[in-house]
Amino acid sequence: MILPPAFYERDTVAVAGDLLGCLLVHREAAGTTMGWIVETEAYLRDDPAAHSFRGETARNRAMFGPAGHAYVYRIYGLHTCVNIVTGQEGVGEAVLVRALEPVAGIELMRERRGTDDPLALCSGPGKLTQALGITMSLDRTSLSEGPLQVRSPGSLPGRRPEGWPGEVVQTTRVGITKAADLPLRFYLRGSRYVSRR
DNA sequence: GGTGAGATTATCT
DNA sequence: GATAATCTCACCG
To answer: Which terminus, N or C, of chain A has the lesser number of Cβ atoms within 10 Å?
Structure first.
């Protein structure tokens, strides 16, 4: 089932952990792509590494909007990353989706990524947006109603991500310079599809 | 298997 | 003008 807004209107760290094993789905004319979420990072209020830390701007406006909507941004001038807004509206917290295990639409992912290696299709925040065709046009769209959706574990009877249910590793976030010591990254220990172990 | 440089641009100082 | 929640490829060992 599609996760309702109430799922996201909770403690951001709890949501970041609970998103592991959920399904990220993008439905579009070119086809539907989807993958199990196997790695996330939490970005909190009063967190110097969060884009919302210095207040609302045109770029980070989604983070201050309703939970359960997407915050999509461009990084290093060329890659796109997707976050899920969490917690109370106006606070500015979100969860970065860092890696997926590909589930469907894999041929489309291969074309977009230019590789056949299943481990390289979605094993990073910039990779998975390229594989799923997630663009800036999805910024501030609802993940409960729009073309980009998140579905609960068990949405695909008989199928489950590698290493799930299983141990969730909590460790430090990747690629940041501020608050780099906080353990706000989560991934499935048994999955080969995470960005780094 | 690991490290480092370069790509490339929106955003904020 | 510097920075940035990344990726790829070249090069080294």
So the answer is: N
**Distance of A180 CA from B4 C1′ (whole Å):** 21
Alpha helices in chain A (DSSP H): 5-8, 12-18, 106-113, 118-121, 125-132
Whether the pLDDT of residue A100 is over 90: the answer is yes
Q: What is the mean pLDDT of residues A127-134?
A: 97
Q: What's the rounded Cα separation, in Å, for the pair A39 and A173?
A: 11
CATH number of A5-156+164-188: 3.10.300.10
Is A51:A43 a contact under the CB 8 Å cutoff? yes
In eight-state DSSP terms, residue A127 is H
pLDDT at A197 over 90: no
Show which positions of strand C are touched by protein (CB under 7 A).
4-8
Q: A4: which DSSP letter? A: P
pLDDT for A196 beyond 90: no
pLDDT of A68 > 90? The answer is yes
